[in-house]
């Protein structure tokens, strides 16, 4: 079963578009190839992808304009490369768990809910730990106005954090519906697809900005 | 607007087209909604289309008023401007900036994409509403908020933003230079919110066209205008990201003391130009394509002929869309980019004229041998192709980097892009309005008044911009507020041309009186009923009542054929609606 295929509520997992029915029959509704919530999310992710592309291209252009010896500026605190690597592992783990939760919900397994909850908590832990790193950097005197490097760091990482929060909030809503057994696979899939985007864009940000 | 929803309208948050089938509340209760639910809080795609359209038209009035003010200043520098007063240089810059911003972002976009997209997509693909009706409602609300913020930016201390609609830093990023700290911040905020609105709309358009088509309607059976609006939405969504990134950076530069674009502290102002035009050039095609699609549909209907080479036309559109991402740096030929890069962008820019020219040829081939009736929408449709052609052809000179070094920032550029944007936005609006308003309101417009309005508008429009090609060639720089300050440009033969252009604008503006008279006469006096299908067209929107009730179709249609089956020799009537079952 391909990942974009979604089990219909009536249990039919195979949605081919019907041939034109004979004129006497009442028209039937089209069975979408990709669930509408997922397709809408994918369209939105396309924009988000270009948004991050814009930010990271701008960062790379600004970086290429100055000698490597002053990027980052020598008088500025170093970025917490190792601690962030640990946080990144949490984030990737969270992405895997949420994906597993979708597959479990699709097969109507009981562990779908706890898997989703743990995945959500790991994601929230990532955001919290990253926030603590920011607080550390700020207390060491690295401000957004300190240098172009610092501006880009706070801008890009902050944008990613906002996206993580923006992905966790609807996911919490879907998990709430899962607890009351009213969530559809399409809804969880839509939340998961956006979360997957947040998870997958992070390694790119990490490699470009931290390393 | 009172006739617009005399039909029974739920106005509630019905899940319009529901792929899951789990959430069908809202059906079944039939109380008449109150004014707010019906007109301001509706999830009905037709009402949202009208909200977008009338908001867009209202904003166009502001944009037109600003154009009137600065054209008067240019024709009669330093003189009193009736209904405006005396114009300072700062006010001049504010007027020019906001004229451009409003006409592109608050008129062309909401009317062509949002209004016609919302109205036409569900009707033309045969479904009852958008896939996400509440997101659709949110989209308009965000848009309205953005319009209010933009208008508010004129009223804050320091006045509105004055750094041109392209907002190049360092002028736009530092209030010491532009002297409009609040104005520039609110301007960026308004533009960003407006993008959010169209993002939400675009998600709806793409998803609806993909998932809600009537049974039997293949992608290749969708009318041209639906294709065009969907592709325009994809282009918009793919190109707007980098500009949002740039806008956030600009906002930080303006307010939080960063210096992404400030050269004196290590920033890079040309970076903004790249981020802006990476969006800005596809944006031209974002607004062009819906207008192109409308004119294609209209030309096929009134030629009573199958649209020539429907699939080829769509392939040229795909090509245009892809190439449009590789032309942006032709806006920076004199901004200090590497000449080798200028070579590449010259080539891509000249290449993109090929698919656009092909579209025009295909429309002409559709006309060839057809039984053409010159109704008002057909006149607008033909005028669109003809006038846009002038804009496209003059673009060739600007796309060639060698010529552009001379033409850059002259009135030649101004005339060129107005020959693209006026056909797109203004002719496009009237084309779509005169063609689809019988469906929207159920009443026909007056043809004679429509023709008077058409001809005076077209004459006025050409009278504005043909002289500006010449003043541009003679060296008129586009950002000068008073030419008397430049002796070599203050010559009477140039000033005469500027006055002709301003008179043209006055003619064009006064022509709109006939449009208003037409609306009043047709909708309040004659009230000639349109019937379901006044133009005898094939597409699905003409197969439901006028105006369409909530839910659009009495029985949901089944589709059997493409949208352009006109004048088939084996059939008695010269059209064949998409949903008419074939004879058994």
Write structural notes for this entry.
The complex is a heterodimer of chains A (211) and B (584). With 211 residues, chain A is an all-alpha fold. Chain A has a domain at 80-210: Up-down Bundle (Four Helix Bundle (Hemerythrin (Met), subunit A)). Chain A is 67% helix and 0% strand. Chain A has five helices and no strands. Helices cover 63% and strands 0% of the residues of chain B. The longest helix of chain B has 37 residues, at 89-125. Residues 1-29 of chain B have low confidence and may be disordered. The chains are: A mainly alpha (211), B mainly alpha (584). At the A-B interface, α1 and α4 of A face α6, α7 and α8 of B.
Short description:
The complex is a heterodimer of chains A (211) and B (584). Chain A is 67% helix and 0% strand.
Question: Keywords for this structure?
Answer:
heterodimer; A: 211 residues; mainly alpha; Four Helix Bundle (Hemerythrin (Met), subunit A); elongated; B: 584 residues; Cytochrome C Oxidase, Chain A; 0% strand; globular; disordered N terminus
According to DSSP, the number of beta strands of chain B is: 0
Residue stretches of chain B low in confidence (pLDDT < 50, at least 5 long) are 1-29
Q: Give the overall silhouette of chain B.
A: globular
CATH-level-4 superfamily name of one domain in chain A: Cytochrome c oxidase, subunit III, four-helix bundle
Distance between the termini of chain A: 38 Å
Q: What is the typical, i.e. mean, pLDDT of chain A?
A: 86
Helix/strand-derived class of chain A?
Answer: mainly alpha
Q: Which value, in Å, is the CA radius of gyration of chain A? A: 21 Å
Per CATH, what is the topology of chain B?
Cytochrome C Oxidase, Chain A
Give the fraction of residues assigned to helices of chain A: 55-70%
- The CATH class assignment of one domain in chain A is Mainly Alpha
Order of helices and strands of chain B: HHHHHHHHHHHHHHH
**What is the structural class of chain B?**
mainly alpha
């Amino acid at each position: 079963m391909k990942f974009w295929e979604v089990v219909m509520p009536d249990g039919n997992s195979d949605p081919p578009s019907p041939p034109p029915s004979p004129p006497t029959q009442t028209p039937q509704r089209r069975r979408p190839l990709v669930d509408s919530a997922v397709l809408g999310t994918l369209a939105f992710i396309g924009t988000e992808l270009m948004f991050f592309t814009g930010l990271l291209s701008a960062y790379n252009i600004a970086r290429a304009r100055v000698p490597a010896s002053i990027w980052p500026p020598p008088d500025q605190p170093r970025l917490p490369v190792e601690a962030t690597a640990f946080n990144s592992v949490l984030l990737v783990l969270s992405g895997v768990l949420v994906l597993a939760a979708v597959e479990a919900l699709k097969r109507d397994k009981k562990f779908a809910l706890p898997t989703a909850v743990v995945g959500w908590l790991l994601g929230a832990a990532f955001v919290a730990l990253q926030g603590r790193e920011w607080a550390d950097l700020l207390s060491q005197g690295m401000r957004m106005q300190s240098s172009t490097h610092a501006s880009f760091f706070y801008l890009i990482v902050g944008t990613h954090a906002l996206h993580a929060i923006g992905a966790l909030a609807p996911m919490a809503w879907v998990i709430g519906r899962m607890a009351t057994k009213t969530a559809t696979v399409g809804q969880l899939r839509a939340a998961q697809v956006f979360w997957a985007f947040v998870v997958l864009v992070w390694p790119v940000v990490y490699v470009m900005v931290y390393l | 607007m009172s006739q617009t929803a005399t039909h029974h309208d739920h106005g509630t948050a019905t899940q319009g087209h529901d792929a899951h089938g789990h959430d069908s509340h809202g059906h079944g209760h039939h109380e008449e909604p109150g004014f707010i639910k019906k007109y301001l809080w509706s999830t009905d795609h037709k009402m949202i289309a009208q909200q977008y359209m009338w908001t867009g038209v209202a904003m166009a009035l502001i944009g037109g008023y600003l154009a009137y003010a600065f054209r008067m200043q240019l024709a009669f520098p330093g003189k009193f401007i009736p209904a405006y007063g005396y114009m300072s240089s700062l006010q001049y810059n504010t007027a020019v900036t906001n004229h451009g911003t409003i006409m592109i972002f608050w008129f062309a976009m909401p009317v062509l994409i949002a209004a016609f997209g919302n109205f036409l997509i569900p009707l033309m693909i045969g479904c009852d509403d958008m896939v996400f009706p509440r997101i659709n409602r949110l989209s308009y609300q965000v848009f309205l908020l953005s319009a209010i913020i933009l208008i508010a930016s004129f009223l804050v201390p320091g006045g509105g933003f004055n750094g041109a609609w392209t907002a190049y830093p360092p002028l736009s990023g530092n209030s010491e230079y532009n002297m409009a700290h609040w104005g520039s911040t609110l301007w960026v905020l308004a533009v960003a919110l407006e993008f959010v609105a169209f993002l939400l709309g675009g998600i709806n358009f793409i998803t609806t066209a993909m998932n809600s088509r009537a049974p039997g309607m293949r992608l290749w059976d969708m009318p041209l205008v639906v294709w065009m609006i969907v592709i325009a939405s994809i282009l918009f969504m793919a190109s707007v990201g980098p500009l949002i990134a740039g806008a956030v950076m600009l906002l930080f530069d303006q307010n939080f003391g960063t210096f992404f674009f400030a050269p004196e502290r290590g920033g890079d102002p040309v970076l903004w130009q790249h981020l802006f035009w990476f969006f800005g050039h596809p944006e031209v095609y974002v607004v062009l394509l819906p207008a192109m699609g409308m004119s294609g549909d209209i030309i096929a209907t009134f030629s009573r002929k199958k649209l020539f080479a429907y699939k080829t036309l769509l392939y040229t559109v795909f090509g245009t869309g892809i190439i449009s991402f590789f032309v942006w740096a032709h806006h920076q030929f004199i901004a200090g980019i590497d000449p080798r890069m200028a070579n590449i962008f010259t080539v891509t820019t000249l290449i993109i004229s090929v698919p656009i020219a092909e579209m025009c040829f295909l429309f002409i081939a559709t006309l060839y041998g057809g039984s053409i009736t010159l109704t008002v929408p057909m006149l607008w449709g033909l005028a669109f192709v003809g006038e846009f052609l002038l804009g496209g052809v003059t673009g060739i000179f600007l796309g060639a980097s060698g010529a552009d070094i001379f033409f850059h920032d002259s009135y030649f550029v101004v005339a060129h892009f107005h020959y693209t944007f006026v056909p797109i936005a203004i002719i496009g609006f009237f084309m779509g309005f005169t063609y689809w308003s019988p469906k929207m309101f159920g009443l026909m417009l007056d043809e004679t008044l429509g023709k008077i309005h058409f001809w005076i508008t077209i004459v006025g429009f050409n009278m504005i911009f043909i002289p500006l090609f010449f003043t541009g060639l003679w060296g008129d720089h586009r950002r000068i507020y008073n030419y008397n300050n430049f002796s070599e440009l203050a010559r009477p033969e140039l000033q005469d041309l500027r006055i002709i252009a301003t008179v043209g604008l006055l003619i064009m503006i006064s022509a709109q009186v006939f449009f208003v008279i037409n609306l009043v006469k047709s909708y309040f006096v004659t009230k000639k009923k349109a019937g379901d299908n006044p133009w005898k067209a094939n597409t699905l929107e003409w197969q439901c009542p006028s105006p369409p009730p909530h839910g659009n179709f009495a029985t949901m249609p089944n589709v059997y054929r493409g949208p352009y089956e006109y004048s088939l020799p084996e059939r008695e009537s010269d059209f064949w609606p998409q949903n008419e079952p074939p004879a058994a």
